Amino acid sequence: MRVLGIDPGLTRCGVGVVEGVPGRPGKLIGYYVVHSEPDEDIALRLLHLDKSLGELVAEHQPDSVAVERVFSQHNVRTVMGTAQASAVAILAGSRAGLPVQTYTPSEVKAAVTGSGTAGKAQVTSMVTRLLGLDAPPRPADAADALALAICHIWRGGTRARIQAAAVAAASARRGGPRR
Amino acid sequence: MRVLGIDPGLTRCGVGVVEGVPGRPGKLIGYYVVHSEPDEDIALRLLHLDKSLGELVAEHQPDSVAVERVFSQHNVRTVMGTAQASAVAILAGSRAGLPVQTYTPSEVKAAVTGSGTAGKAQVTSMVTRLLGLDAPPRPADAADALALAICHIWRGGTRARIQAAAVAAASARRGGPRR
After folding, report:
1. In chain B, where are the structural domains located?
2. Span B140-159, pLDDT tens digits
3. pLDDT, tens digit, for every residue of A89-114?
4. B153 to chain A nearest CA, in Å?
5. Is residue A7 flagged as an active site residue?
6. A37 annotated to a ligand binding site
7. Domain B2-172, what architecture?
8. Where Mg(2+) 1 is bound, by residue (chains A, B) (predicted)?
9. CB A178 within 8 A of CB B15
10. Residue B80 in contact with partner chain A when CB distance is under 8 A
11. Are A141 and A13 in contact (CB under 8 A)?
């Protein structure tokens, strides 16, 4: 099972691709950070992110996509951009007909470290170990995206397969706007 | 000049298409509301909105797209969905190579009523009058989307043309992810 994990952000969006099966150490396929400048036009930033994620999905042909769920306890201005980036991330999967699953930050932390309140350093350290890497992935956005992919592989299964069927059906449908 | 206005929302997304020139009453081309159910999977909701807006852009071939800018003073849970919907709305324009402009609610209200603090009923009433309609457009999401399109026509011009050039250049560029 190959999973593309996305840690959404407008300025830095982390992407991690991992192959594996539940309960076994995974294999790193690649990781990326898609950048855009905060002072750039929002339409151009979203378009760049959309094209970049679309290209990475086409290149890696994952079986599913895992996206971090956005919460609102952060800085309000940042959260709006993160919510917009998360929509682009989710669409990158669903437009390609792939099942998309969202996970909260604590679900991801718990999956890779055993604790939902683990710090960034601990997550990075476990990702490095679980994927058998010589050095920690940098920057941290990439490590978080890899942790998401690992989380999805370990927890994936029934939920993902049910949703895959629904997405495939929705993609196939002609789906005109309901007026 | 034909403008497609979008009042973003996940549950109800208003779309209004108006043709006109600055300072003259515009002509209504059509209006729509794209629905999705709050209990549906987020990936399916975003996909439905994406497909619907893409189809409306293809059908109406607007010269530009105007999207309401999302603010965070509202209910926090709603705002996340609205921010996600706004990203889909902006992409519907920029993916089609169209210039996209965002306007705050008060800019839209000021453009159609003369007051940035006008109520919904006043906006609907002015939209009905400015477009020469026999009855007010319903629901209110559609009236807001039409107000956005009118606002853009009246204020459009230089800014939109500059951005059109930038979007066209970005769409033409190969634009691989910056790794």
Report:
1. 2-172
2. 789 999 999 999 998 865 45
3. 999 999 999 999 999 999 999 999 99
4. 19
5. yes
6. no
7. 2-Layer Sandwich (3.30)
8. 7, 141
9. no
10. yes
11. yes
